[in-house]
Amino acid sequence: MTAPPADDVIALDPAVSRGPAPAQTGARRGGTLHILRDGAYDHLDPQRSYTLQALAVGHLLFRTLTMFREDGNGGRVLVGDLAETPGQDVDGDGRTWEFTLKPGIRFEDGREVTAADVAYGIARSFASEISDGPTHLRNWLSENGDYPGPYGKGEGGQGHTRGRDDGPLDVPGLEVRDARTLVLRFRDPHPDLPFAVSQPVTAPVPRDADTRADYDHAPVATGPYRIERHVPGERLTLVRNPHWDAVTDPVRHDHPDRVEIEMGVEAAEQVRRVRADQGPDACAVAENQPPESLAAELVADPSLAGRLSRDPTPLVWYLAINTARVTDLDVRRAIAHALDKTGFRDAMSAGQGVPVHTLLPAATIGHRDYPDPYPSGGHGDPRAAAALLDGATPELRLVSREDAYFLAPAKLLAGSLERAGLRVELVEIDRPSHNAVLKTQGHPYDLYLMCMASDWPGASSLLGMFDGRTIAATGNDNFVYLDDPGINAEIDRLRRLPAAEAADGWAALDERLMRDHVPMVPLFSYLHVALNGSRVRGVFTSSFLGTPVYYNAYVDTDAQAEGGA
Length: 565
Fold this sequence. Notes:
Blueprint: E1 32-36, H1 52-61, E2 66-70, E3 76-80, E4 88-89, E5 96-100, H2 115-124, H3 136-142, E6 174-178, E7 181-185, H4 193-196, E8 225-231, E9 235-240, E10 258-262, H5 267-276, E11 284-286, H6 292-299, E12 308-321, H7 329-338, H8 341-347, E13 354-355, H9 382-389, E14 395-401, H10 404-419, E15 423-429, H11 434-438, E16 447-452, H12 460-463, H13 485-495, H14 499-516, E17 520-532, E18 536-537, E19 540-541, E20 548-549, E21 554-555
Parallel strand pairs: 1-10, 1-11, 14-15, 14-16
Antiparallel strand pairs: 2-3, 4-5, 5-7, 6-7, 8-9, 9-10, 11-17, 12-16, 12-17, 13-17, 18-21, 19-20
Protein backbone atom coordinates (compact mmCIF):
# COMPACT_ATOMS: atom_id res chain seq x y z
CA MET A 1 0.00 0.00 0.00
CA THR A 2 1.33 3.43 -0.89
CA ALA A 3 0.42 6.79 0.56
CA PRO A 4 -2.24 8.82 -1.30
CA PRO A 5 -1.15 12.10 -2.89
CA ALA A 6 -1.68 14.75 -0.23
CA ASP A 7 -3.36 17.21 -2.58
CA ASP A 8 -5.97 14.68 -3.78
CA VAL A 9 -7.40 13.64 -0.40
CA ILE A 10 -9.85 16.52 0.24
CA ALA A 11 -12.86 17.20 -2.01
CA LEU A 12 -12.44 20.85 -2.94
CA ASP A 13 -15.51 20.87 -5.22
CA PRO A 14 -18.66 21.38 -3.05
CA ALA A 15 -20.64 19.19 -5.46
CA VAL A 16 -18.69 16.13 -4.26
CA SER A 17 -20.02 16.70 -0.72
CA ARG A 18 -23.66 16.71 -1.79
CA GLY A 19 -25.85 13.63 -1.56
CA PRO A 20 -26.93 11.10 -2.40
CA ALA A 21 -23.99 8.70 -2.19
CA PRO A 22 -22.83 7.05 -5.41
CA ALA A 23 -25.18 4.23 -6.37
CA GLN A 24 -23.98 0.67 -5.87
CA THR A 25 -24.42 -1.48 -8.96
CA GLY A 26 -27.03 -4.16 -8.33
CA ALA A 27 -27.91 -2.86 -4.86
CA ARG A 28 -31.42 -3.42 -3.57
CA ARG A 29 -33.31 -2.55 -0.42
CA GLY A 30 -34.55 -5.11 2.07
CA GLY A 31 -33.39 -8.01 4.17
CA THR A 32 -31.29 -8.19 7.31
CA LEU A 33 -27.52 -7.87 7.41
CA HIS A 34 -25.95 -9.96 10.19
CA ILE A 35 -22.59 -9.07 11.74
CA LEU A 36 -20.79 -11.58 13.94
CA ARG A 37 -18.16 -10.18 16.32
CA ASP A 38 -16.19 -11.50 19.24
CA GLY A 39 -17.03 -9.06 22.01
CA ALA A 40 -18.79 -5.93 23.19
CA TYR A 41 -18.08 -2.55 21.69
CA ASP A 42 -15.95 -0.44 23.97
CA HIS A 43 -18.35 2.47 23.39
CA LEU A 44 -21.26 3.52 21.20
CA ASP A 45 -21.26 7.06 22.57
CA PRO A 46 -19.75 8.96 19.62
CA GLN A 47 -17.58 11.19 21.78
CA ARG A 48 -16.07 8.07 23.38
CA SER A 49 -15.69 5.85 20.29
CA TYR A 50 -12.13 5.24 19.15
CA THR A 51 -11.71 1.53 18.42
CA LEU A 52 -11.93 0.61 14.75
CA GLN A 53 -15.02 -1.59 14.81
CA ALA A 54 -16.88 0.94 16.97
CA LEU A 55 -16.03 3.57 14.36
CA ALA A 56 -17.31 1.27 11.61
CA VAL A 57 -20.72 0.73 13.24
CA GLY A 58 -20.73 4.43 14.11
CA HIS A 59 -20.83 5.22 10.38
CA LEU A 60 -24.37 3.81 10.37
CA LEU A 61 -25.51 5.72 13.45
CA PHE A 62 -23.84 9.12 13.39
CA ARG A 63 -22.89 11.89 11.03
CA THR A 64 -19.88 14.13 11.56
CA LEU A 65 -18.77 17.46 10.12
CA THR A 66 -16.67 15.67 7.49
CA MET A 67 -16.19 12.01 6.53
CA PHE A 68 -13.97 9.88 4.34
CA ARG A 69 -15.77 8.23 1.44
CA GLU A 70 -14.03 5.10 0.20
CA ASP A 71 -14.52 3.25 -3.05
CA GLY A 72 -13.56 -0.19 -1.72
CA ASN A 73 -10.42 -0.32 -3.87
CA GLY A 74 -8.11 1.84 -1.76
CA GLY A 75 -9.40 5.20 -3.00
CA ARG A 76 -10.73 7.69 -0.48
CA VAL A 77 -11.74 11.33 -0.39
CA LEU A 78 -12.73 13.62 2.49
CA VAL A 79 -16.15 15.15 1.93
CA GLY A 80 -18.47 17.38 3.88
CA ASP A 81 -20.92 15.19 5.82
CA LEU A 82 -22.96 17.36 8.19
CA ALA A 83 -21.20 20.32 6.58
CA GLU A 84 -21.65 21.55 3.02
CA THR A 85 -17.89 21.33 2.39
CA PRO A 86 -14.84 19.95 4.23
CA GLY A 87 -14.47 23.41 5.80
CA GLN A 88 -13.32 26.91 4.90
CA ASP A 89 -9.91 28.13 6.05
CA VAL A 90 -11.15 31.69 6.57
CA ASP A 91 -7.83 33.53 6.58
CA GLY A 92 -5.73 30.95 4.77
CA ASP A 93 -3.47 30.39 7.77
CA GLY A 94 -5.09 27.32 9.34
CA ARG A 95 -6.21 29.17 12.46
CA THR A 96 -9.88 29.95 11.75
CA TRP A 97 -12.22 27.41 10.18
CA GLU A 98 -15.88 27.84 9.28
CA PHE A 99 -18.43 25.08 8.66
CA THR A 100 -21.95 25.56 7.34
CA LEU A 101 -24.35 22.70 8.03
CA LYS A 102 -26.52 21.28 5.28
CA PRO A 103 -30.21 22.03 5.78
CA GLY A 104 -32.58 19.18 6.50
CA ILE A 105 -30.36 16.87 8.57
CA ARG A 106 -32.38 15.48 11.46
CA PHE A 107 -32.05 13.40 14.61
CA GLU A 108 -33.97 10.15 14.83
CA ASP A 109 -36.76 11.98 16.70
CA GLY A 110 -37.27 14.40 13.80
CA ARG A 111 -35.60 17.48 15.29
CA GLU A 112 -33.34 19.32 12.87
CA VAL A 113 -29.64 19.25 13.74
CA THR A 114 -28.22 22.68 14.55
CA ALA A 115 -24.73 24.05 14.95
CA ALA A 116 -25.43 24.21 18.70
CA ASP A 117 -25.96 20.42 18.75
CA VAL A 118 -22.58 19.88 17.06
CA ALA A 119 -20.95 22.31 19.49
CA TYR A 120 -22.50 20.44 22.41
CA GLY A 121 -21.09 17.17 21.14
CA ILE A 122 -17.64 18.75 20.96
CA ALA A 123 -18.11 20.21 24.46
CA ARG A 124 -18.87 16.74 25.85
CA SER A 125 -15.46 15.49 24.71
CA PHE A 126 -13.87 17.74 27.37
CA ALA A 127 -15.69 16.03 30.26
CA SER A 128 -13.36 13.75 32.23
CA GLU A 129 -15.95 10.99 32.62
CA ILE A 130 -16.38 10.51 28.86
CA SER A 131 -12.90 11.38 27.61
CA ASP A 132 -12.03 8.03 26.02
CA GLY A 133 -12.33 9.23 22.42
CA PRO A 134 -9.84 11.01 20.14
CA THR A 135 -8.42 14.16 21.68
CA HIS A 136 -7.00 16.08 18.72
CA LEU A 137 -9.80 18.65 18.57
CA ARG A 138 -10.05 18.95 22.35
CA ASN A 139 -6.32 19.56 22.65
CA TRP A 140 -6.25 22.14 19.86
CA LEU A 141 -9.17 24.11 21.31
CA SER A 142 -7.52 23.93 24.74
CA GLU A 143 -4.72 26.11 23.35
CA ASN A 144 -7.22 28.96 23.84
CA GLY A 145 -7.76 28.24 27.54
CA ASP A 146 -9.10 25.69 29.99
CA TYR A 147 -12.61 24.30 29.75
CA PRO A 148 -14.11 21.87 32.31
CA GLY A 149 -16.77 20.36 30.08
CA PRO A 150 -20.52 21.01 30.04
CA TYR A 151 -21.49 19.21 33.25
CA GLY A 152 -20.51 21.72 35.90
CA LYS A 153 -19.70 20.48 39.38
CA GLY A 154 -22.70 18.25 39.93
CA GLU A 155 -22.78 14.55 40.62
CA GLY A 156 -21.04 12.01 38.38
CA GLY A 157 -22.39 10.47 35.24
CA GLN A 158 -24.05 7.33 36.58
CA GLY A 159 -27.76 7.94 36.84
CA HIS A 160 -27.43 11.49 35.57
CA THR A 161 -30.77 13.26 35.27
CA ARG A 162 -31.74 13.79 31.65
CA GLY A 163 -31.84 17.45 30.66
CA ARG A 164 -29.83 18.84 33.57
CA ASP A 165 -28.36 22.21 32.60
CA ASP A 166 -25.70 23.19 35.13
CA GLY A 167 -22.47 23.57 33.17
CA PRO A 168 -20.97 26.13 30.80
CA LEU A 169 -21.00 25.71 27.03
CA ASP A 170 -18.41 28.37 26.21
CA VAL A 171 -15.75 26.07 24.73
CA PRO A 172 -12.74 28.31 24.10
CA GLY A 173 -12.38 28.99 20.39
CA LEU A 174 -15.75 27.47 19.44
CA GLU A 175 -18.44 29.84 18.18
CA VAL A 176 -22.01 29.04 17.18
CA ARG A 177 -22.63 31.90 14.80
CA ASP A 178 -26.19 30.89 13.87
CA ALA A 179 -28.31 27.75 13.55
CA ARG A 180 -26.20 26.40 10.68
CA THR A 181 -22.77 28.01 11.13
CA LEU A 182 -19.95 26.83 13.38
CA VAL A 183 -16.57 28.59 13.66
CA LEU A 184 -13.45 27.10 15.26
CA ARG A 185 -10.52 29.35 16.14
CA PHE A 186 -7.09 28.17 17.26
CA ARG A 187 -4.05 29.87 18.66
CA ASP A 188 -1.79 27.89 16.34
CA PRO A 189 -2.30 26.82 12.72
CA HIS A 190 -4.02 23.47 12.24
CA PRO A 191 -4.13 22.70 8.51
CA ASP A 192 -5.29 19.15 9.31
CA LEU A 193 -8.50 20.38 10.93
CA PRO A 194 -10.80 19.05 8.15
CA PHE A 195 -9.43 15.57 8.88
CA ALA A 196 -9.80 15.90 12.66
CA VAL A 197 -13.49 16.85 12.47
CA SER A 198 -14.24 13.61 10.60
CA GLN A 199 -13.91 11.86 13.95
CA PRO A 200 -17.08 11.16 15.95
CA VAL A 201 -16.30 13.85 18.52
CA THR A 202 -18.15 16.17 16.10
CA ALA A 203 -21.30 14.02 16.04
CA PRO A 204 -24.22 16.18 17.22
CA VAL A 205 -25.85 15.42 20.58
CA PRO A 206 -29.12 16.98 21.85
CA ARG A 207 -28.32 18.40 25.26
CA ASP A 208 -31.64 17.30 26.73
CA ALA A 209 -30.91 13.70 25.68
CA ASP A 210 -27.42 13.54 27.19
CA THR A 211 -27.17 11.02 30.01
CA ARG A 212 -23.41 11.41 30.40
CA ALA A 213 -21.73 8.01 30.84
CA ASP A 214 -25.07 6.25 30.29
CA TYR A 215 -25.37 7.79 26.82
CA ASP A 216 -23.32 4.78 25.67
CA HIS A 217 -26.42 2.57 25.87
CA ALA A 218 -28.76 4.51 23.57
CA PRO A 219 -27.13 7.43 21.73
CA VAL A 220 -29.38 9.50 19.47
CA ALA A 221 -28.81 8.73 15.80
CA THR A 222 -28.36 11.03 12.82
CA GLY A 223 -27.20 8.35 10.36
CA PRO A 224 -29.30 5.95 8.27
CA TYR A 225 -29.89 3.62 11.23
CA ARG A 226 -30.96 3.96 14.86
CA ILE A 227 -30.69 1.56 17.78
CA GLU A 228 -33.79 -0.55 18.36
CA ARG A 229 -32.30 -2.86 21.00
CA HIS A 230 -28.94 -3.02 22.75
CA VAL A 231 -27.86 -5.73 25.17
CA PRO A 232 -24.17 -4.91 25.78
CA GLY A 233 -21.92 -7.84 25.00
CA GLU A 234 -24.77 -9.85 23.48
CA ARG A 235 -26.74 -8.14 20.73
CA LEU A 236 -27.22 -4.80 19.00
CA THR A 237 -30.16 -4.33 16.63
CA LEU A 238 -30.26 -1.40 14.20
CA VAL A 239 -33.29 -0.38 12.17
CA ARG A 240 -33.72 2.38 9.62
CA ASN A 241 -33.80 5.94 10.91
CA PRO A 242 -36.95 7.37 9.28
CA HIS A 243 -35.59 10.92 9.49
CA TRP A 244 -32.32 10.26 7.64
CA ASP A 245 -32.39 11.83 4.18
CA ALA A 246 -30.16 10.27 1.52
CA VAL A 247 -30.25 13.53 -0.45
CA THR A 248 -28.04 15.14 2.23
CA ASP A 249 -25.59 12.25 2.61
CA PRO A 250 -22.67 11.79 0.17
CA VAL A 251 -21.39 8.56 1.76
CA ARG A 252 -24.02 6.25 3.23
CA HIS A 253 -26.86 4.02 2.05
CA ASP A 254 -29.66 2.33 4.01
CA HIS A 255 -30.10 -0.78 1.88
CA PRO A 256 -30.83 -3.44 4.58
CA ASP A 257 -34.04 -3.16 6.57
CA ARG A 258 -32.16 -4.18 9.70
CA VAL A 259 -28.63 -4.78 10.92
CA GLU A 260 -28.32 -7.48 13.58
CA ILE A 261 -24.98 -7.57 15.43
CA GLU A 262 -24.33 -10.71 17.47
CA MET A 263 -21.54 -10.37 20.03
CA GLY A 264 -19.49 -12.96 21.88
CA VAL A 265 -18.87 -15.17 18.84
CA GLU A 266 -15.22 -16.23 18.68
CA ALA A 267 -13.43 -15.63 15.38
CA ALA A 268 -13.18 -19.32 14.43
CA GLU A 269 -16.89 -19.82 15.12
CA GLN A 270 -17.73 -16.75 13.04
CA VAL A 271 -15.89 -18.25 10.08
CA ARG A 272 -17.39 -21.72 10.58
CA ARG A 273 -20.90 -20.30 10.51
CA VAL A 274 -20.39 -17.94 7.58
CA ARG A 275 -18.56 -20.62 5.58
CA ALA A 276 -21.45 -23.06 6.13
CA ASP A 277 -23.75 -20.37 4.70
CA GLN A 278 -26.91 -21.69 6.37
CA GLY A 279 -30.02 -19.61 7.07
CA PRO A 280 -29.27 -16.10 8.40
CA ASP A 281 -25.52 -16.77 8.19
CA ALA A 282 -25.76 -16.57 4.40
CA CYS A 283 -26.42 -12.86 5.07
CA ALA A 284 -23.64 -12.53 7.66
CA VAL A 285 -20.18 -10.99 7.92
CA ALA A 286 -17.40 -12.57 10.00
CA GLU A 287 -15.97 -9.33 11.38
CA ASN A 288 -12.87 -10.56 13.21
CA GLN A 289 -9.64 -11.92 11.77
CA PRO A 290 -9.75 -15.77 11.76
CA PRO A 291 -6.98 -17.86 13.36
CA GLU A 292 -4.03 -18.24 11.00
CA SER A 293 -4.43 -21.96 10.34
CA LEU A 294 -8.07 -21.37 9.45
CA ALA A 295 -7.22 -18.29 7.37
CA ALA A 296 -4.78 -20.34 5.28
CA GLU A 297 -7.44 -22.99 4.78
CA LEU A 298 -9.95 -20.40 3.62
CA VAL A 299 -7.51 -18.83 1.17
CA ALA A 300 -6.84 -22.25 -0.36
CA ASP A 301 -10.55 -23.09 -0.79
CA PRO A 302 -11.65 -22.28 -4.40
CA SER A 303 -15.31 -22.61 -3.47
CA LEU A 304 -15.06 -19.37 -1.46
CA ALA A 305 -14.00 -17.25 -4.43
CA GLY A 306 -16.08 -14.09 -4.44
CA ARG A 307 -16.81 -14.34 -0.72
CA LEU A 308 -13.25 -14.15 0.63
CA SER A 309 -10.74 -11.31 0.48
CA ARG A 310 -7.18 -10.74 1.73
CA ASP A 311 -6.84 -7.01 2.16
CA PRO A 312 -3.87 -4.84 3.18
CA THR A 313 -4.55 -2.61 6.15
CA PRO A 314 -2.95 0.46 7.70
CA LEU A 315 -3.09 -1.22 11.09
CA VAL A 316 0.09 -1.76 13.07
CA TRP A 317 0.46 -3.59 16.36
CA TYR A 318 2.79 -1.85 18.79
CA LEU A 319 4.17 -2.67 22.21
CA ALA A 320 3.65 0.61 24.04
CA ILE A 321 6.15 1.52 26.78
CA ASN A 322 5.07 3.72 29.67
CA THR A 323 8.02 6.13 29.62
CA ALA A 324 6.91 7.67 32.91
CA ARG A 325 7.65 4.32 34.59
CA VAL A 326 10.32 2.81 32.31
CA THR A 327 12.59 5.84 32.47
CA ASP A 328 15.88 4.17 31.53
CA LEU A 329 16.37 4.55 27.76
CA ASP A 330 18.68 1.53 27.60
CA VAL A 331 15.93 -0.63 29.09
CA ARG A 332 13.53 0.58 26.40
CA ARG A 333 16.14 -0.13 23.73
CA ALA A 334 16.70 -3.59 25.20
CA ILE A 335 12.97 -4.25 24.97
CA ALA A 336 13.04 -3.31 21.28
CA HIS A 337 15.95 -5.70 20.58
CA ALA A 338 14.44 -8.58 22.54
CA LEU A 339 10.96 -8.76 21.05
CA ASP A 340 9.99 -11.77 18.95
CA LYS A 341 8.00 -9.91 16.29
CA THR A 342 7.52 -12.88 14.00
CA GLY A 343 6.31 -15.11 16.81
CA PHE A 344 3.96 -12.37 17.99
CA ARG A 345 2.57 -11.98 14.48
CA ASP A 346 1.96 -15.72 14.21
CA ALA A 347 0.38 -15.87 17.67
CA MET A 348 -1.96 -13.07 16.60
CA SER A 349 -3.18 -15.34 13.75
CA ALA A 350 -1.69 -12.99 11.18
CA GLY A 351 0.79 -15.14 9.28
CA GLN A 352 0.41 -12.90 6.23
CA GLY A 353 1.31 -9.83 8.25
CA VAL A 354 4.58 -7.98 7.73
CA PRO A 355 7.00 -7.21 10.61
CA VAL A 356 7.72 -3.46 10.72
CA HIS A 357 10.06 -1.08 12.53
CA THR A 358 8.70 2.40 11.66
CA LEU A 359 6.08 4.14 13.77
CA LEU A 360 4.23 5.42 10.69
CA PRO A 361 2.25 2.88 8.64
CA ALA A 362 3.33 2.48 5.03
CA ALA A 363 0.25 4.22 3.55
CA THR A 364 0.79 7.40 5.57
CA ILE A 365 1.98 10.62 3.97
CA GLY A 366 5.44 10.99 5.51
CA HIS A 367 6.34 7.31 5.83
CA ARG A 368 9.99 6.47 5.11
CA ASP A 369 11.58 3.06 5.48
CA TYR A 370 14.74 3.96 7.45
CA PRO A 371 17.18 1.25 8.69
CA ASP A 372 15.92 -0.64 11.72
CA PRO A 373 17.78 0.75 14.77
CA TYR A 374 17.06 -2.47 16.71
CA PRO A 375 17.59 -5.40 14.32
CA SER A 376 16.50 -8.67 15.86
CA GLY A 377 16.33 -11.23 13.08
CA GLY A 378 12.56 -11.34 13.42
CA HIS A 379 12.57 -13.53 16.54
CA GLY A 380 14.42 -11.20 18.89
CA ASP A 381 18.08 -10.69 19.79
CA PRO A 382 18.41 -11.45 23.52
CA ARG A 383 22.19 -10.95 23.43
CA ALA A 384 21.92 -7.38 22.15
CA ALA A 385 19.25 -6.70 24.73
CA ALA A 386 21.28 -8.21 27.58
CA ALA A 387 24.31 -6.13 26.61
CA LEU A 388 22.25 -2.96 27.07
CA LEU A 389 20.92 -4.17 30.42
CA ASP A 390 24.50 -4.81 31.62
CA GLY A 391 23.45 -7.28 34.30
CA ALA A 392 20.36 -5.40 35.44
CA THR A 393 17.11 -7.38 35.72
CA PRO A 394 14.31 -4.79 35.80
CA GLU A 395 10.81 -6.02 36.57
CA LEU A 396 8.08 -4.92 34.18
CA ARG A 397 4.30 -5.22 34.35
CA LEU A 398 2.83 -6.23 30.98
CA VAL A 399 -0.94 -5.80 30.81
CA SER A 400 -3.14 -7.78 28.41
CA ARG A 401 -6.83 -7.92 27.62
CA GLU A 402 -8.37 -11.00 29.28
CA ASP A 403 -9.06 -13.03 26.15
CA ALA A 404 -7.13 -15.98 24.72
CA TYR A 405 -6.68 -14.10 21.45
CA PHE A 406 -4.66 -11.43 23.29
CA LEU A 407 -3.17 -13.49 26.11
CA ALA A 408 -1.31 -15.97 23.91
CA PRO A 409 0.72 -13.33 22.03
CA ALA A 410 1.25 -11.37 25.25
CA LYS A 411 2.75 -14.48 26.87
CA LEU A 412 4.98 -15.00 23.85
CA LEU A 413 6.32 -11.44 24.11
CA ALA A 414 6.82 -11.87 27.85
CA GLY A 415 8.91 -14.97 27.14
CA SER A 416 11.11 -13.13 24.62
CA LEU A 417 11.74 -10.37 27.17
CA GLU A 418 12.57 -12.87 29.89
CA ARG A 419 15.13 -14.56 27.64
CA ALA A 420 16.98 -11.24 27.58
CA GLY A 421 17.06 -11.03 31.38
CA LEU A 422 14.00 -8.88 32.04
CA ARG A 423 11.46 -10.03 34.62
CA VAL A 424 7.85 -9.76 33.43
CA GLU A 425 4.61 -9.90 35.38
CA LEU A 426 1.65 -10.47 33.04
CA VAL A 427 -1.56 -8.82 34.26
CA GLU A 428 -5.00 -9.42 32.72
CA ILE A 429 -7.61 -6.67 32.41
CA ASP A 430 -11.15 -6.85 31.05
CA ARG A 431 -11.39 -5.86 27.42
CA PRO A 432 -13.96 -2.99 27.57
CA SER A 433 -11.97 -1.05 30.19
CA HIS A 434 -8.49 -1.80 28.79
CA ASN A 435 -7.96 1.41 26.83
CA ALA A 436 -9.59 3.68 29.41
CA VAL A 437 -7.26 2.39 32.15
CA LEU A 438 -4.12 2.81 30.07
CA LYS A 439 -5.15 6.31 29.01
CA THR A 440 -5.40 7.34 32.68
CA GLN A 441 -2.26 9.05 33.95
CA GLY A 442 -0.51 7.26 36.78
CA HIS A 443 -1.74 3.74 36.02
CA PRO A 444 0.56 0.97 37.36
CA TYR A 445 1.56 -0.75 34.09
CA ASP A 446 4.79 -0.60 32.08
CA LEU A 447 4.00 -2.36 28.81
CA TYR A 448 0.80 -2.85 26.81
CA LEU A 449 -0.22 -3.90 23.32
CA MET A 450 -2.01 -1.41 21.10
CA CYS A 451 -3.21 -1.72 17.51
CA MET A 452 -3.42 1.60 15.71
CA ALA A 453 -3.40 3.40 12.41
CA SER A 454 -3.08 7.09 11.68
CA ASP A 455 -6.43 8.78 12.24
CA TRP A 456 -6.11 10.40 8.82
CA PRO A 457 -3.66 10.11 5.88
CA GLY A 458 -1.20 12.68 7.25
CA ALA A 459 1.34 11.72 9.90
CA SER A 460 0.32 14.30 12.49
CA SER A 461 -2.49 12.27 14.00
CA LEU A 462 -0.16 9.44 14.99
CA LEU A 463 3.14 11.16 15.76
CA GLY A 464 1.28 14.09 17.31
CA MET A 465 0.27 11.74 20.12
CA PHE A 466 3.81 12.12 21.54
CA ASP A 467 3.23 15.78 22.45
CA GLY A 468 3.78 15.74 26.20
CA ARG A 469 1.87 18.96 26.77
CA THR A 470 -1.39 17.14 26.00
CA ILE A 471 -1.06 14.74 28.94
CA ALA A 472 -4.11 15.01 31.19
CA ALA A 473 -5.58 13.03 34.07
CA THR A 474 -7.67 10.83 31.76
CA GLY A 475 -8.33 10.16 28.10
CA ASN A 476 -4.74 10.44 26.92
CA ASP A 477 -3.81 9.79 23.30
CA ASN A 478 -0.25 10.11 24.61
CA PHE A 479 -0.65 6.84 26.49
CA VAL A 480 3.14 6.35 26.63
CA TYR A 481 3.42 9.59 28.66
CA LEU A 482 6.45 10.89 26.75
CA ASP A 483 7.12 14.56 27.46
CA ASP A 484 10.28 15.81 25.77
CA PRO A 485 10.64 19.57 24.99
CA GLY A 486 12.52 18.93 21.74
CA ILE A 487 9.89 16.50 20.48
CA ASN A 488 7.10 18.86 21.52
CA ALA A 489 8.70 21.73 19.62
CA GLU A 490 9.18 19.70 16.44
CA ILE A 491 5.56 18.53 16.56
CA ASP A 492 4.55 22.19 16.84
CA ARG A 493 6.62 23.11 13.79
CA LEU A 494 5.34 20.29 11.62
CA ARG A 495 1.70 20.71 12.60
CA ARG A 496 1.74 24.21 11.14
CA LEU A 497 2.51 22.85 7.67
CA PRO A 498 0.13 21.25 5.16
CA ALA A 499 0.49 17.45 5.01
CA ALA A 500 2.51 17.45 1.76
CA GLU A 501 5.04 20.05 2.99
CA ALA A 502 5.46 18.36 6.35
CA ALA A 503 5.99 14.83 5.01
CA ASP A 504 9.81 14.78 5.14
CA GLY A 505 9.84 16.31 8.61
CA TRP A 506 7.43 13.73 9.98
CA ALA A 507 9.57 10.95 8.48
CA ALA A 508 12.64 12.36 10.26
CA LEU A 509 10.69 12.66 13.53
CA ASP A 510 9.61 9.02 13.25
CA GLU A 511 13.25 7.90 13.09
CA ARG A 512 14.29 10.32 15.85
CA LEU A 513 11.61 9.01 18.21
CA MET A 514 12.71 5.43 17.65
CA ARG A 515 16.44 6.11 18.00
CA ASP A 516 16.36 8.57 20.89
CA HIS A 517 13.22 7.72 22.90
CA VAL A 518 11.68 4.31 21.99
CA PRO A 519 8.16 5.13 23.29
CA MET A 520 6.69 2.19 21.37
CA VAL A 521 8.04 -0.78 19.45
CA PRO A 522 6.30 -1.40 16.10
CA LEU A 523 5.61 -5.12 15.69
CA PHE A 524 3.75 -5.90 12.48
CA SER A 525 1.17 -4.66 10.00
CA TYR A 526 -1.36 -7.29 8.97
CA LEU A 527 -3.62 -8.34 6.13
CA HIS A 528 -7.29 -8.75 6.96
CA VAL A 529 -8.81 -12.04 5.83
CA ALA A 530 -12.53 -11.34 5.45
CA LEU A 531 -15.31 -13.85 4.76
CA ASN A 532 -18.91 -12.91 3.96
CA GLY A 533 -22.05 -14.95 3.48
CA SER A 534 -23.05 -15.65 -0.11
CA ARG A 535 -25.86 -13.08 -0.02
CA VAL A 536 -23.79 -10.20 1.34
CA ARG A 537 -22.76 -7.47 -1.08
CA GLY A 538 -21.02 -4.11 -0.73
CA VAL A 539 -19.00 -4.84 2.43
CA PHE A 540 -15.29 -4.09 2.09
CA THR A 541 -12.24 -3.74 4.29
CA SER A 542 -11.59 -0.06 4.83
CA SER A 543 -8.14 1.06 3.68
CA PHE A 544 -8.54 3.74 6.32
CA LEU A 545 -9.70 1.64 9.30
CA GLY A 546 -8.50 -1.84 8.35
CA THR A 547 -11.81 -3.42 9.36
CA PRO A 548 -15.04 -4.15 7.45
CA VAL A 549 -17.32 -1.16 6.86
CA TYR A 550 -21.00 -1.33 6.07
CA TYR A 551 -22.34 1.90 4.58
CA ASN A 552 -22.52 0.36 1.07
CA ALA A 553 -23.76 -3.05 2.27
CA TYR A 554 -26.83 -4.78 0.93
CA VAL A 555 -28.37 -8.23 1.05
CA ASP A 556 -29.08 -10.03 -2.22
CA THR A 557 -32.52 -11.38 -1.39
CA ASP A 558 -32.77 -13.17 -4.74
CA ALA A 559 -29.48 -15.08 -4.48
CA GLN A 560 -29.76 -18.82 -3.99
CA ALA A 561 -26.99 -19.50 -1.51
CA GLU A 562 -25.99 -23.13 -1.24
CA GLY A 563 -27.74 -24.43 1.82
CA GLY A 564 -29.06 -20.95 2.56
CA ALA A 565 -32.58 -20.03 3.53
